[in-house]
Write a structure and sequence with these properties.
heterodimer, A: alpha+beta, four-stranded antiparallel sheet, 52% helix, B: alpha/beta, nine-stranded mixed sheet, two-stranded antiparallel sheet, 6 helices, 11 strands, 27% helix, globular
Amino acid sequence: MDFQLDAKHEMARSLFREFAEKEVKPRAIEVDETEEFPRDTVEKMQKYGFMGIPIPKEYGGQGCDPLTYAMCVEELSKVCGTTGVIVSAHTSLCCDPILTYGTEEQKQKYLVPLAKGEKLGAFGLTEPMAGTDAQGVQTRAVLSDDGKEWTLNGSKCFITNGKEADIYIIFAYTDVVEDKKGRKQKKFSAFIVEKGTPGFTFGTKENKMGIRGSSTYELIFQDCKIPAENLLGARGKGFPIAMHTLDGGRIGIAAQALGIAEGALERAIEYTKERKQFGRTIAQQQNTQFQLANMATQCEAAKLLVYAAAEAKRTKDRYSVEAAKAKLFAAETAMEVTTKAVQLFGGYGYIREYEVERMMRDAKITEIYEGTSEVQRMVISGALLA
Amino acid sequence: MKVVVCIKQVPDTKGGVKFKPDGTLDRGAMLAIMNPDDKAGLEAALRLKDQYGAEVTVVTMGLPKADAVLREAMAMGADKAVLITDRVLGGADTWATSSTIAGALRNLEYDLIITGRQAIDGDTAQVGPQISEHLQIPVISYAEEIKVDEKAKTVEVKRQFEDRYHIVKAKMPCLITALSELNDPRYMTPGGIFDAFDKDVTVWGRNDLKDVDDSNIGLKGSPTQIAKASDKVKKGAGEKIVPESDEAAADYILGKLQEKKVV
């Protein structure tokens, strides 16, 4: 067992860190304040291949591994949670399912421009009445009699990269079957939907607590016609596609949570070494030392789980439990470490300029999206008790 | 077109300079980076690659760990890399270094050699021009802008010179020393990093150097001897006074100057 990163991954980290410090950090306060999607940063990330890190070169990607991708999201999130989730949602939730389930034509048409970063991706599963319980999904797709196109009706909510994306993976039910007990079960299918398709519009922009620069929108489909060839994977297999995609997505969000926690820890170390009370720095107070020690230990533990999950994605077909553990622990670490960082900053921690309060607001969503912490516990215990 | 860029791995002075007890630089205790002027030179070469499809080879002389700076250069887009490393080459001053690098360059084809103006650890600015002397090719130092005419095989350089600049044209092959102001070097790419670690770095030792005499290499071939190196001397806090009047202030200063026997 090797706990040491190799030189290649260390160099990748130095790249992501330098980029984050120079290009992302200076804009983080403004992005949060104005809620503006950082399009210029995304264009820079496109130029340097950050939008297709784990995608093979033949499909326009960088040909790296999930660990390198997780490290990218981690380093970006250290300075800006918004930028971290833009990359995560695009890569894990849109590029990855097309790579895994797409036909060669779909890969050439959609994955190549996505992995090159020329197009931005998004993923739509959640609906107003269906979050964790996917059976509540109301969006329906009906195949035309001639079998040439699907008609999509319904809406999706809380969609990351919502209005900024070009290509969307959308889940809708396409069939209703009866199970052994005679209960009706919706069967889902996944579709690739392009922005600009007639009948596809945007609803309200969400005004959020954190990750405020990420474009979170409602998607509306009214008699939206999708070519038959845009069905992703087999008809009726949408649910396993969504679940498998979210397994990968959780590694990205776990990396985001890890980055937010590490960013807050770094700020807390800097600040407590400078701030003086009662004639000495607060870092010289034992309470501060013990808090920092706990925070650093939690970050390190989260890092090991996140990297192990990323490695599991590279080496295994199934990594649901590894991903769930990583996301559960990293998200709770992010919340705890950022909250403690604000406390160590005292009054200044409550002031926006000092950034740790933003990290605390950004951290909260990592316990909620792509499966709440409770869902992660369901996945983990489900495997234990199977 | 073939461009060779000479780069150096230097200690990162941002984290502070650290010395060994004997007064020499403790390189092991400091982070190593690509020298900033050299990185600008590499960026200039990579732009020639983008524009004319030039083949870019990076060369460095140093310890085996200088391999890292070559991988970084390949991750930015350089095609080939050569590491010159050998115990007998250690302790080299600028003369021995330039003799060594010239010996390696004689094995390579080039239209243009680009070096940084100077390295942040030595600040001599001598190695680039010395290499051109050894190779008997023109040198244009302190380049702020580089334009290449591929057909005419010439290069036109805007050369920084005190309060003005010169526009200098030279026939290729020639050597240019680059300023960090020349450009804003690109980042590596993640895929470039993975590729860089799959590629081979050519490693040359003493015996691979062409037309170099033993008297011109290593510590023995170095006319320069460092007597002492030190960090900046820290000044103590100054004395603050609040004089009652301008006259009193002038008297006080005069008194101090007399005390120090300045006046």
